[in-house]
Amino acid sequence: MKKTIFAIMTFLATAAFADPQFIELKSGKTQYVVGERAVLLASVRTSPSDPATEVHLEATWNTDAIKLTKFSDTEFAVVTPVLPDTSPYHWEVKAYLQNRASALNLNSSIALLQKENILLSQKHSLETDPEKKALLLQAISENEALILGLQTQLQQGRTLLETKELYVYPTQVKKGHRLSSPLQISTDKVDDVFVVGESGTVTFQVNPSEMTETYEFVSEVEATLGASPMVLVKNSDLNYQSSIDGSMLTVGSHAISASLFIRNKRDANSLLDAIDKAALMKAKNEQLRDAETNTALIAYYQREVDDLTAIISAFYAVYADMKIFVATANLTIEVVEISPVYIDQSNIYAYENSSGSYSVALTTEPTANVTIVASSPSSRVTFSTKNGRSAQMSLTFTPSNWSTPQQILFTTADNSIVDGTEAIKITHTASGGDYEGVRVPDVYVHVMNDDYGSILFDTSQADLSLDGTPTQYGVSLSAEPIGVVQVTIDTTILRVNGQNGLPVVLTFSPSDWNQVQYVSVEIPPGTDLYPYTYHYLDHLASSADGYDGVQGSMVFLIVP
After folding, report:
1. Which CATH number covers residue 497?
2. Are residues 544 and 397 in the same domain?
3. Is 445 exposed, middle or buried (0-12, 13-18, 19+ CB in 10 A)?
4. Tell me: the pLDDT tens digits for 100-116?
5. Which residues constitute the signal peptide according to the record (predicted)?
């Protein structure tokens, strides 16, 4: 058989480094679990000053040789076998200096021989003539001997620079989170009711306050509508949305199920960065391969492309395994027939102590008189009838006026509480004619708060002495809140209740909002307020209602 003769140039590269800190090792993840594969990264931190030389890395995994793939000019990676148990795993990397051109020459020859052996092995598996099979095996054996000789020359031409090691300690199980409400599902429809043929939007909201992870994470939400996967648009790590095509839904109940997963943001971004770099390196080797005419170099670049393809695939597999299940969420939407009762509004916004209305009509002529009754469960929304305010109001439609809109008139009441906006649902029932028991749409009246809270002081101004004598003043709220209100007092200049520099917080509740809380204030020693005549002490309220962000300042007259 015709053999190719390779001219091999041996070399001995020399290092010229004062402090050998050539490589850095790190793990692609903070923590691995049994059953996963580890991604381990080696970075060349110090490059040779001689452009004719380069750093070469070799690695072992628990004493067994493991292939390192170069995925950028200075970075190498290995994806380990599956971690079968919680034993510690040892990764050792040796950094060598080698002549760049000679190493490329030797590696190209090795790659060409390896490619030839693959073809010979394929021919051997198809060959039936015993004599020809023997010749093919002999050729494969001769090539393997040549490969071993070339690999020995490679090793002899390298100078060891540095050895580094890293240990991997896998845990037994992956931690999951089954918390109260880290994922919430909502729709843009009142009570999640869709009219048949009507499209809408589903929102998936991640609530990080219900999660126990302390590290920064990236989220992933997967959802289904019935048995069909939903296409989600990721607006942020905390918000996803999906559109529902109403024409694809039948009348009845439809279940939306969603699962929330997270990944450690640092680990995930590091791996995605490695994937991008490996893809660029693969494209670079493909260009070099396609521009090359030397068959040995073509084989070498193709081997590099194959290695990078494998490492990219392994990276993606590890990335998929990085995600940690957090929780599920479910929502049932209702699809209903178009109501034969028309209501011109579904959401109405009105301030306290105001009036509003909406129109109601029938869409088909009834067989007899039809009565529509509107009902409110709350005293904050009542209806204007001929007998005064009432919790219900009825309209009567006849076969002659069924299509003429009639008005539902309502009035909102003030509760004298700083409570934000409250949504109150008005329900409707139909009776009479052929409208008996048909579905009638609901209407939500959003009652907006007109009570604006403020921070009250028991005096408009107080004297404050430069000699440090304490002065007292009182603090309360102007109206009842719906929850706890915290008032933070600025202490950066004055000493408040003995504190200087640390904020002082006063807490008020719906039961004590109007009870005065007294505060002691003094000028700390060494504080120079000259030439100021007045000092304004800032107060800032925080709450879940209309008090949030309310500010107030106590005025002090500076006296000797």
Report:
1. 2.60.40.10
2. no
3. buried
4. 999 999 999 999 999 99
5. 1-18
